[in-house]
Amino acid sequence: MNAQRSFLRWMLVTLMVAGTFTSAWAQGLAAQATPEDAPPVFATLGLPEIEYTVTNDTIEGSTEVPAGPVLLTVHNETAGWLVSSITRLPEGITGEQFVEVLVNEDALDDWVADAVVAGGFDQAPMTSESAIIRLDAGTWTLGLQGDTELATSYATLTVTESDASFDEASIPVDFVLSMSEYAFDFPDTIPAATRIWQVSNVGQQLHHVAVFPADARYTPDEVLASVQAAFAGTPVATGFSLEVEPVFVSSAISGGQSIWVEGTLDPGFYVALCFMTDFGDATPHLMAGMIDSFEVTET
């Protein structure tokens, strides 16, 4: 359900073998340029919190939270890469079926179209990640996939009705990234001081965004040619390359959902890709043109 469909799994394995893939979205951003004396903004908002600690043997964490925006934190205490996703499953779908979708390399099962994927993380070993997600009242499932064997692969969360209201507009967002079929709406330039990102899916399919540093601005056709060459085992000598450490790998989210993350990017050029697939299809969205390029500037 998250970013690890077959095409992205190939990318992750390739980069981890090369020893370069070491951080995910929030960790990669925060490690780059967030000032040491700048306290985390999300911790000051007073949001309800859900927190999970994942080891190879157990999942320990929250079992109940009021509906609305919540601060999600996942501690990956395994020795491998961990993919997590909080999802409201359709009636009749079990946690075991959910986990099977996470590890399946083929097209997404049809029932996924009726699920609501609120968000989660793709995160490196022994790291902690935090983000704000939105949960409606009902039963939700935290599904996990790991590079190492997990004794427990899912946990259930009860989201209760709440009289309290939190205005999402009060989250001090610096930049809103919208995703749809099949495009991102990155501007040409983003200030380096941009710290709070809202990533919103305004389309119907599942989408995510993976951001890679680049040495220049590239057109979608140039990026696609490089990715196809790398996938075929014949990477190009010059141009955009996937053999770099991505600084941003957001979780997949359903249409109508948003995830808020905190961190900054260094000045430079970047390429954004979506590796998710349509329901019932196995073709990554980047093949349909979901590719963008932008520059982070000093001011």
Write up this protein.
With 299 residues, the protein is of the alpha+beta class. The chain folds into two domains: 39-168, Cupredoxins -  blue copper proteins (Immunoglobulin-like, Sandwich), CATH 2.60.40.420; 171-297, Sandwich (Immunoglobulin-like). It contains four helices and 18 strands. It has helices at residues 6-17, 25-33, 95-103, 220-231, and strands at 49-54, 59-61, 64-66, 68-76, 82-88, 116-123, 127-135, 138-146, 154-160, 175-180, 183-184, 189-191, 196-201, 210-214, 248-249, 258-262, 268-273, 291-297. The strands form three sheets. It has an eight-stranded mixed sheet, covered by helices on one side. It has a five-stranded mixed sheet with strand order 3-9-8-5-6, covered by helices on one side. It has a five-stranded mixed sheet with strand order 12-18-17-14-15. Strand 10 and strand 11 form a beta hairpin. The radius of gyration is 18 Å and the shape is globular. It starts with 5 loop residues before the first helix and ends with a strand. The relative contact order is 0.22.
Keywords:
299 residues, globular, alpha+beta, 18 strands, 2 domains, disordered N terminus, Immunoglobulin-like, 4 helices, 5-stranded mixed beta sheet
In short:
The protein has 299 residues and is an alpha+beta fold.
